[in-house]
Each structure stands twice: as structure tokens, then as C-alpha cells.
Amino acid sequence: MKKIKKIFLHRGFRIFVIPVIGGLIILNYSFFKTDSIPKDDFQEIFNRNYAVFALEIPEKLDFAGENVPLEYFDVKESFDRELLVNTYWQSQTLLFIKRANRYFPMIEKILRENGVPDDFKYLALAESGLMQAVSPKNAVGFWQFLKSTAREYGLEVSEEVDERYNIEKSTLAACKYLKKAYERFNSWTMVAASYNNGRTGLIKQINRQDEDYYYDLLLNEETGRYLFRILSLKTIINDPEKYGFYFRSEDLYPPIRTKKIEVDSAIHSMVDFARHFNLNYKTLKYFNPWLRDNRLTNHKKKTYSIEIPVNSDFRAGSYSPKLFESKN
What's the fold here for domain 62-251? Predict the structure, then answer.
């Protein structure tokens, strides 16, 4: 260990590392000052402490109960690529595992209640990393809905409310989209592909190539890799230790219990609303990112469910809507 320490503390030792699929590239090896470290010793230390392994491909694999034809060389190699990428991008995949522990139970329940296969939770993970992401095309939330699609499937999108950020409601909207797509394609694999490429875009390729089997279609780079990324995440999360991911239960992000506060009137100050429940504004927005402003005018008197954590020290008494009515 002393030799290793000397190597990395030597002021002339400069190392540049670039992560690549399945390994590392080390640049400027010739620049290292190894005059105090015999070359043979350096190589021995390197070989003893650094290793990258090829990954075992499962014998069988399926998505939503539909077989993945790993006997096809291109299918096997496409899956291998994504498995390597997601195994050796350790920090990102470990964060995925941690977040999945918090959000998968809610997503699983909604998928099950709406007759959508459980594997689609990995689609949400691939789409957003289970974060309230915004894409370059302004697709938003866990399920990456565009504004027009969100409204088509019943989500409110306005300056004050954007339900694409509501995990429960956006998952319900995703279920509607996925079930409608299944009516057209009769294949959950093709449904997943259509989620990335759009139903119209996928139908165009089906007609152009006279082929409706995902693994026989030539698709653009993103959609061609899309399902294999989902499959790789499923494979790693279902057997993390096999792919080098070790963690304790306390390392995972736990689900946080919340209760819903029904609001059918205006809230003139979200800060005051949060304080009424012994929360700060930041915490209120964490649990309700779909509230996009610091007020809720609610001219149509809709009923909204605002979530607050149940372990907070709530003040006595129930919520009075008039307390937060606009003074104007």
C-alpha cells in the first residue's frame, strides 16, 4: 500500500482518465515521472489493483413477458453494449438503484391497477432517471411528456400548475398512452419503442420496411438502443451484486409517507400555506413540484391534492380554505 500511495502522491505523476464502454483510457503515460519507481514495480502494482471484466449475458431475457431473441448476434451485442455502459457508469446506476427504492413502489402499484406490465417502471427510469427532468425538446417529468401529449392524456399544464411533474398523475397518463399504443401494436416491446419514437414515427418505419417486429426493424440510433437500455437497467437492478453493486438497506432512499390536503380554493401564498403545516416553501415544493408558482389562483375552483410528509410536526386544527383565499 505504501508503494501505491507514493505513486499517486508523486508531484510529477499526472494521470488523465477517460471512461469508455467497459474500461478506461489512460493518457499521457509517457509524461509520468517514474524515475523513483522501477517500471516493473509500477506495472505489477497496476495489474494487481486494476481490472475490468467482460459481463455475462443472461441465457434468457424478456420484456413484459415477450422474449428477447439473444440468439440474434446483433440483439446480443446491442444488449451487451448497454449492459456495459450502465454497469461501468457506476455512479449513475447506483443513484438509479437508490431512487428506485423510493419511487418504484408507487409506480408499480399504478401500473398494476391499470393493467400495464411491471417492466414499464424501467422505461420511466430510462426516460428520466426518476428525476423531474426537462429534455432539450421540453419533455418534462418522470415520464417525459411533451405539453401537447400531456394535455391529450388529461394532465393540466399551465403557468401555475404542470401535472407532468406530478408523479402519480403522470404515471396514470402514461398508462393511458401505453394501453392505447398496445391496441395499435399488440406488442409491449413495440409499445416501448413507440414511447421513444412516437406512434406515428414507428408506424412509418413499419410501413416502409414491411416489418412489425422490433428486433427486425432498422430504427434511428436512439430508438434502436432504447429498449436495450431498459433491459440493461432491469437486469442490473434485479441482480445488482452480479454486476458489482453492493449496498446496505440504509444506503437506499426510503419512500416518504405523505398525506393529501384537498384544496378547492385559491392559495394566495404558498409560503404561508407551507408554514401552516410546519413546513418551509422548499419542502412543500419538493413534494409538489407540479405547483409551478408561489400562489394558486384556481379560478375554476378545481380540487387539488397537495402532499405533505406525515412525519412533520403539524399544527393543531384542520386546513381552512378561506385562510388562503386571495385578498383581491
Answer: Lysozyme (1.10.530)
